[in-house]
Design a protein that fits this description.
14 strands, mainly alpha, Glutamyl-tRNA Synthetase, domain 3, Helicase, Ruva Protein, domain 3, Rossmann fold
Length: 507
Amino acid sequence: MNPRVRFAPSPTGPLHIGGVRTALYNYLFAKKNHGTFLLRIEDTDQTRFVEGAEAYIIEAFQWLGIKFDEGVGIGGDYGPYRQSERKAMYKPYAEQLVRDGWAYYAFDTPESLDAKRKEAEAAKKTFQYDASTRMGMVNSLTLPAEEVERRLAAGEHYVVRFKYPDNIDIHVHDLVRGEVVINSSLLDDKVLYKSDGMPTYHLANIVDDHTMEITHVIRGEEWLPSAPLHVMLYKAFGWEAPQFAHLPLLLKPDGNGKLSKRDGDRLGFPVFPLQWTDPKSGDISSGYRESGYLPEAVINMLALLGWNPGNDQELMSLQELIDAFSIEKISKAGAKFSLDKAKWFNHEYIQMKSADELYPYFEKILEKKHISCNADYVKNVIDLIKDRLNFINDFWEQACYFFEAPTEYDPQALKKRWKEGTGAHLKVIDDMLMSFQPFDRQKAQDTVMQYIQDNGLNMGQILNSVRIALVGTARGPELFTMIELMGTEETHRRIQRAIENVSDSNA
């Protein structure tokens, strides 16, 4: 059968970009191999459930353009796709493991477990519920069968723990890391099911992957320690295990360790795809969308953090990523996040887009400023300034003077460019510009240049003083192109305002 892969986040908060990358690699693998990509929400831990997190996850992937073939919000033949809606199906599997000798009921109280831990600490050891300790605990391995039945019938709290065979080597074949071997003596008997009717991640994950016919489990490196248990659970059930691939971590830009929200806050970049407002604290965390990133740039950037196509190509469309993707080219080593590289990707993607494609983004910015403007005018502005943009949000800073005349003038620019007699020269130039009706950019430029030459003036000084009058500072695109776009009437108004408000003595 064609591969079936899944992305299975827990709705415990905003989606980290590391999770986005995991989903992306699953998506690329599925599309490359004509498979199916599904979304499953793993919400068995209701104590950590955060209102709005599931909707956030779905919206994030919609913005990024990563589409699921089936799952939550889509449907399919393997649903329901939300674990809380599958609650009733897990208990029989837990009971099956107990009957087959792969698991047992444990009745130990939190107090007794805490006492065991303290006892171990006093002996400078670490307590672990495993083959060496389980026979000294209160469970169905140490209690008479009648007592176990009595406790279950009485509704006593219990958990079902996995029973590892003693001292065996467990082999995990990982598509990224190769053969991983761990001895069962190093592993604790993980809880699989609780008497409140909810499974733990481990049991629910395995049952769901099996019943949804998942063929490849592509997930983060943090799940590698759980892989031996998952392999053993497949063996216990007599099921064929999927193929595993554990992805390298996304690392902080400086130092060592996993990329965290704290790193983003500290260094000034988002670690979530969308802005997130904590429903309890009200704290707001920045998102790539709201920070002015294009979704295509985020996808391209994330794809190359831990994977490469085998050549020097960096700018790749989603289809190109699909065509080139293979698990074999995923790195074992963690990938450092680079803010400079993220900026570079976004800048390049902005340059690749036409004014028509960028217009909807900038239209929203103008709407927030309560500025109504002709669409063709805005698109012409975009063409002039887009090479200066790293982010969509840079638009207003780089282009505001096209929509609002300056009310103040950069004092440093004035000091450098506005000299004695500048006002008089600007009046002459203003008259020249107004004489061209309709405006001819080349003729206007030639005429002004000739005036500067004939009068022995400093070209940089004079042209930049005109620019100051139009923009408020000595920056911006080519001067006469800017005048052509603004129009001679608006240019005249701005020059006159500058002459009136900036005296030669002030400069």
